[in-house]
Amino acid sequence: MTVSLTLDNVSAHYGSTQVLEDLSLHVAEGELISLLGSSGCGKTTTLRLVAGFLQPTAGTIRLGDRDLTRLPAHARNIGLVFQTYALFPHLTVRDNVAFGLKQRGMGRKERDRRADEMIARVGLDALADRHPANLSGGQRQRVALARALVIEPPLLMFDEPLSNLDAKLRVDMRVEIRRLQQANGTTAVYVTHDQEEAFSISDRVAIMNAGRIMQLDTPEVLYSKPANAFVADFVGFENMIPMRVVAEAGDAVRAEMEGGATMDLPRGTFDVPGRDFILAARPEGLLVAPEGSAPGIPAKLGLRTYLGRAYQYQCDTPAGSVMANGPLSAPFDAGAAVTLVPQPDQCCLLPVEA
Amino acid sequence: MQNKTHPLLIAFAVLVFFFLLGPLVIIIGSALSETSYLTFPPQGLTLHWFENIFEISAFRRTMATSFMLAVGGTALSMLIGIPAAYALARYRVEIPRFLGNVYVLPILIPEIVLGFSLMKSLATGLGLPITLSLLVGHALLVLPYCVRVVGASLNNFDFSIEEAAVSLGCTRAKAFFTVVLPNIQAGIIAGFILAFITSLNDVSVSIFLTGPGVSTLPIQLLAHMEQFFDPTIASVSVLLMLVTVAVMAIVERTLGLTFLTK
Ligand SMILES: Nc1ncnc2c1ncn2[C@@H]1O[C@H](COP(=O)(O)OP(=O)(O)OP(=O)(O)O)[C@@H](O)[C@H]1O
Ligand SMILES: [Mg+2]
């Protein structure tokens, strides 16, 4: 039973403060989408809306062809995994997992059988009779996962499920979550503020800011082609250089940066989004080259650090300080005058936001 | 840091214990005396004064009333207190803070004022029968304990547990009974016990609400004392003490006393 989840122009308020603004999101059948964003951007709020713990002030939420918007939370049949696990302290692992089945009126024998089966699938066979207080964090997380999975929900939602675990376990568990989600073909929404976690297990990632989705795309696209300055900054484009088109020079566009230096950007390799734009680049997207060897940004080198795969330089340009990488084969000395050459496949030209 | 306890500190601790426990020892001693007046140390040893409690019908009757009030009043108070504590904890952000404090007013107001105002409103104003106004009065008297102690365990309660239950198919109401109540059980028992003891030992509120034919044990004790000054008073006091100690012992055995101070 796989279904899609659709949020159409959903807004949410706490009291008079708006937390989500006109949010639209479509999660395809069997897809895992992550909501990624800094604290307070509305990730949990989005989950609570879908779960039914909060009513949207506008918009609709649909699961498959079912309209959830006015359905009470207990009738939505959505599997939820909480950041704090939210296990029932007074019940054993088995009774925790069987809880949802019991609510569905299933007899004790059958629900215990199914619970035990699911407990075995998450590798906790030996612990079925324990209470949550006597489990480690990772084990609790597995119980929470089993409890959500056993009701075979068409939609699974995770709210920062791994943030209370140590680094090693986080990696193991996220792989496990992905494996179980794919095995069941369950549609899933996964909330996290850990970029690596989101990118590693998601089909697509929604990067959120202040109650809005800034970009929703595959991790690959987000990583290499952010659509706006916010996303670029989020995924590690450290250098943001504002530019302005000053002339069309044949098959190139001449752009001027702050401080007056100009640079020719060949059409076809660079897609200039407007008169004013931002050149965004990671350090490896700006190659340190001898002065005048190629069109680029004039710079004077500052501190050099060794990264193993390259040297990294702190550079002074007319537009301010930037970080750029240079090849190991040809180290430059501090104070050298160089050109920083934008690498087309590792830079983006972004529109300036109003 | 030196590990040896300062002798002054020891002396101080001994003094505190002496003043706390001394009067109790005197009462227990007096209750056992063979004399027909209160005296300490006891002259001779007898349990006669304890039998006497049960022989005097007024004591028997008021004892029953007191227990009925303590159980009934506390139960009534819990019926209001648990939902109130739940709402205050669950909607901490939404509910104005002063509302939470309304529930502890009965502790903050001098008891004698509370008793007097209850007499004015319940007995005189509404004209409630004595037993009923006593029941309502005691329920109000112990309400702060119910709300506060149950509230303390609700403040430690992770409400996402309740949401987990709802997401698994429980209605809100059912989730309250199947996952919230079992997890604040200890707080409810502790609140019940504190309230029970408070009600059982109350004088200030009861004295305004008791009337012809209906009284409580502590009030009867006062009445008895005005006429007779025999060791029965001491033995009733010892009895009340024993009930309190017994209840505490049960708590200690089942939940641990630290629980009450949490
Ligand atoms: N019960 C509430 N009452 C009022 N405002 C709230 C409430 N819950 C959340 N908010 C506000 O709504 C905004 C979004 O909150 P939300 O919990 O969705 O953030 P989040 O993205 O999940 O953040 P985090 O990563 O810290 O969990 C925040 O600014 C928060 O302060
Ligand atoms: Mg959150």
From TrEMBL, chain A:
Metal-binding found in the keyword field: no
Spans traversing the lipid bilayer: none
Segments forming a coiled coil: none
GO MF term set: ATP binding; ATP hydrolysis activity; transmembrane transporter activity
Gene Ontology biological-process annotations: quaternary ammonium group transport
Domain ABC transporter as annotated: residue spans: 5-235
Gene Ontology CC: one annotated term: ATP-binding cassette (ABC) transporter complex
Keyword flag ATP-binding: yes
This protein's UniProt keywords: ATP-binding, Nucleotide-binding, Transport
Xref: InterPro entries: AAA+_ATPase, ABC_SmlMolc_Importer, ABC_transporter-like_ATP-bd, ABC_transporter-like_CS, Mo/tungstate-bd_C_term_dom, P-loop_NTPase, Transp-assoc_OB_typ2
SUPFAM superfamilies linked to this entry: MOP-like (SSF50331), P-loop containing nucleoside triphosphate hydrolases (SSF52540)
Entry superkingdom: Bacteria
Protein's name according to its UniProt entry: Spermidine/putrescine ABC transporter ATPase
